[in-house]
Amino acid sequence: MPFITLGPVRVHYLQLIPESQGIGDVPDIVFIHGLGANLGFWYFNIAPAVSDFARVTMFDLRGHGRSSMPEHGYRMQDLAGDLEALLDHLEIGAPHLVGHSLGGAVMAEFAASHPDRAASLTFVDARLKLFQPTMTLADWPHWEAVKPVLDELGIVLKPEEGEISYQLLREIARLQWLAADRGEELMKRLSGSLLAGFTFTGAGGRRAAGQLLRLLESTTALAEMSKPDEKTLAQLKSIQCPVAAVYGAESQTLATHKALQDVWPDLNSWIIPNAGHFFPTTKPESLNTALREFYQNIL
Question: Each residue of 153-163: pLDDT tens digit?
Answer without folding.
Answer: 777 777 766 67
